[in-house]
Design goal:
Strand order of the largest sheet: 7-8-6-9-12-13
Strand content: 15-25%
Mean pLDDT: 93
Distance between the termini: 20 Å
Radius of gyration: 20 Å
Number of strands: 13
Order of helices and strands: EHEHEHEHEEHEHHEHEEEHEHEH
Low-confidence stretches: none
Largest sheet: 6 strands, parallel
Number of helices: 11
Shape: globular
Length: about 350
């Protein structure tokens, strides 16, 4: 029996699919994680991509204008960028209005709400289109109570943002189900919510209620049920550590997996802040996590080896595994080490 989130965690209304993915003018793949994540995990609802001049990022989908995508069957354009602060820059507005004028609704996971931008509100009204914001927390979130809940939980944590916590959680949930384990993916960010169809955008929750939101996200469940909770940010992040801590306390994970990208030297977008070590992340997560689950433990590491050869990826995983004495794998490569990671989660 799977657990069912409380009524406060509302599933999204049926979204207008399929999508045209908008990449804007972003030049950093980490900031295009919404478009890339949708393409990787929900390709059946993605028709094409569209970007502005100077954008080198691509999901690999065909490039189409809104008019072309509408003719190809798209019903909405998703803003596929998650930039710092979640703002919609002025230079995007002509493209967003173009989508509305050509019969596409707009779907956004940004902090800035589509309807708060006069040009978009007017265009949507003029053309009878919908402006849909998914980065909106449910009403009635309580303050966290710290009560121990039934069921089991695994949380993905990271050395930084945008390096694989969502992908790892999705892969773990799928892998556990493949082993016959009753497991659910719990989305805590806008991209995960778009993929799963439900969840709570943790970084949009008022700080006092963040632990309570995480408790709602992963409610009481059967003793043999596992919730795989998508992590957010990093406990070492100079801007987003508060989100990570609220999620850690509220989710009360029994086990956690550390996510890391080899070669990344500093916090994404913060060149003055060096990346913490995996060891430091494990130690701090255990120290802080024990506040709501005294038995919390790290069961392994997920490495984002995108762009590395198979041999280089295997060597990187082996080195970290030998150093820490834990299973280390890239979940996207689905090899024997990933199976060891799955087994460690439920051991």
């Amino acid at each position: 029996m799977s657990s069912t989130p409380t009524a406060a965690v509302q599933a999204l209304a049926a979204l207008p699919q399929p999508y045209l993915l908008f990449l804007g003018d972003t030049t950093e793949a980490g900031f295009a994680k919404t478009a890339i994540g949708l393409h990787d995990w929900a390709p059946e609802v993605c028709v094409a991509e569209w970007s502005l001049p100077g954008c080198p990022i691509s999901t690999g989908l065909p490039s189409m204008t809104p008019a072309q995508a509408r003719a190809a069957g798209a019903r909405a354009m998703v803003i596929g960028v998650a930039n710092g602060g979640g703002v919609i820059p002025p230079q995007w507005l002509p493209a967003l209005v173009d989508a509305l004028e050509n019969g596409l609704d707009l779907v956004s996971g940004m902090h800035q709400k589509l309807g708060d931008i006069p040009e978009l509100a007017a265009a949507a009204e003029r053309h009878g289109r919908e402006l849909i914001n998914v980065r909106v927390p449910p009403r009635g979130i309580p303050v966290g109570n710290g009560r121990k809940r039934t069921g089991k939980r695994v949380l993905t944590v990271g050395t930084d943002c945008a390096l694989g916590k969502k992908y790892t959680a999705l892969a773990l949930a799928r892998g556990l189900r493949g082993l016959g384990v009753d497991a659910d993916f719990r989305a805590s960010g806008q991209t995960g919510i778009l993929i799963a169809g439900s969840g709570i955008p943790m970084d949009a929750v008022v700080a006092d209620f963040s632990a309570g939101a995480a408790e709602l996200l992963s409610p009481d469940a059967a003793d043999d049920h596992w919730d795989v909770i998508e992590g957010q940010g990093s406990l070492f992040h100079p801007a987003y550590a508060g989100v990570s801590l609220g999620l850690l306390h509220g989710s009360q994970p029994d086990v956690f997996v550390v996510c890391h990208q080899p070669g990344r030297q500093h916090v994404l977008g913060y060149p003055d802040y060096p990346l913490p070590s995996i060891e430091d992340v494990i130690a701090l997560t255990v120290q802080l996590g024990r506040r709501t689950n005294p038995d919390i433990r790290c069961v392994g590491v997920s490495l984002n080896t995108h762009g590395m050869t198979d041999a280089a990826a295997a060597a990187a995983c082996a080195e970290v595994s030998a150093r820490l004495g834990l299973p280390v794998a890239d979940p996207m490569r689905q090899d024997g080490e990933f199976n060891r990671l799955l087994e460690a989660c439920i051991a």
